[in-house]
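User: quick one, fold this
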Amino acid sequence: MPEEDPGKRAFALYQRYLQTNDLRDLRESVELLRHAAAASPANPARFANLGAGLVMLFDREGGPELLPEAVAAAERAVKLSPRSPAYLSNLSTALELLFQQTSDDETLARAVRTARAAVESTPDGDALLTMRLSNLCNTLRSSYLRGGDEAAIVEAVTAAERAARLLTGPGDEASRLLSNLANARWDLAHHRVDPALLSAAVATFQDALDATPHDHPNRPDVLANLAVRRGAVAANDADADAAVELARQALNQTDALDPDRPHKESCLASTLRTRYNHTG
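Assistant:
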């Protein structure tokens, strides 16, 4: 009996990992993807799958050696199929993660260029265009936060606004995309010191919350983001009270053992200070 293809076995283990969350399945899947790529050096999908698997493993384990390998695999996929928006998008994601680890400006610049190319290669009407526009927004925002270039944050807002126009309703994608748009608008408002833009950004944070289901695991984060921003622009006692209530909801919906709970406590403290400053 011929040996089973390692790519198929890797996919089966990945599917099992999604059900069990057992890190051993993910590690074994990645190792099989390495073998599959080595056995098919002209197959871009094998290298794209390896790159994506390494990024996923990095998200779980944080091994510093995983990202350079992920970038190399994603680059190989793009070299073999240079106009594939999926492969370009995967490469951009790996490059931005590598930038976050190394703070290398050229790596971030490549991430931005590749994210643009992914969007430009995606036809109108493609279901993944929204996600790729959102990814472009994030890489451009990273570029702005790194160097303060207004053109980068303007382009980030433009990309996220285009993505928002493609949304079909509330849910996970809408929550994530509108949060990205809100963050980009907030950055642009601060860059230009424009109160009207700040108000528009806060309204977008509210839109993100409205699009987030009540049982969504990221809802506490969306609540906390809105709370801090509402507190920052509070013009009266009612605004300050609303910010505190949002921060309390975020904290109450965060498990006591959640590693992000201290951040939620800090958000509540910030809004309480804001209310104190208003009421004395």
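User: anything notable?
Assistant: The CA atoms of residues 164 and 178 lie 7 Å apart.
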